[in-house]
């Protein structure tokens, strides 16, 4: 499994990925999920999740500069067209491999986060699916996750917005990753972090982080401590209602109380005695003779 998160903000982009692959409890590997593409007029970042053989095949097509419908990453006019190129690369791998994968009972699983900037346009971010189609981040929905996303999502939803500074967004992404590492063994260190500053067209802030990185160590320790402190600072529920601010038994405004079904009382049944048969009067044989 994996976890990657990409943020698209007013001042630039943030990319963060782990490096663990998992094909079973005894087949743990370390592979990079982040790939950079740089030229004088453009800068792109690609992060991948899913079947490693499929994502590596897609990346190889892109790195070789193979033309797809007459374009590659180096000739695409803008970042949207570059995302189309990546979608076409996925479709090419699908056409080549999907029948063999189906026979082996393996799903065609390939999810990508792709973003960057071509000179003259704003930074852009895309989530590209296994079918080769994609969606683009917006100021209202300014981040994408792929892989094991559920553990790291709450902090992003509570803190992040399009106007968040790159430094604050970097901290938020790392806390999101730490939460995922803490809850899922299929995501693991080292981490690759890129903070891309708008219009730079360079990877000025790129780092690989492991357990010895002092900033990540500090985040791992303090985030756990602060969470426990925040948890302990919240009042316990008051069932008696003595403390109005923490009263838990207050009636709901839109629904009544939950009905409690009790076993109905046993009905008293009258004992009915069976009717006694009347004795049959015997007629004597002498009476018959007369």
Please explain how this structure is put together.
By secondary structure, the chain is an alpha+beta fold. The protein has one domain (3-215): Glutamine Phosphoribosylpyrophosphate, subunit 1, domain 1, CATH 3.60.20.10. 30% of the residues lie in helices and 23% in strands. The chain contains six helices and twelve strands. The protein has helices at 52-64, 79-103, 153-159, 166-183, 214-233, 285-289, and strands spanning 3-9, 12-17, 20-22, 28-30, 34-39, 42-50, 110-118, 124-128, 134-136, 143-147, 191-197, 205-209. It is extended, with a radius of gyration of 34 Å.
Level-2 CATH architecture: 4-Layer Sandwich
The CATH homologous superfamily:
Aminohydrolase, N-terminal nucleophile (Ntn) domain
Number of domains: 1
The residue fraction in helices comes out at 25-40%
The major β-sheet equals:
5 strands, antiparallel
The CATH topology annotation reads as: Glutamine Phosphoribosylpyrophosphate, subunit 1, domain 1
- How are the strands of the largest sheet arranged? 10-1-2-11-12
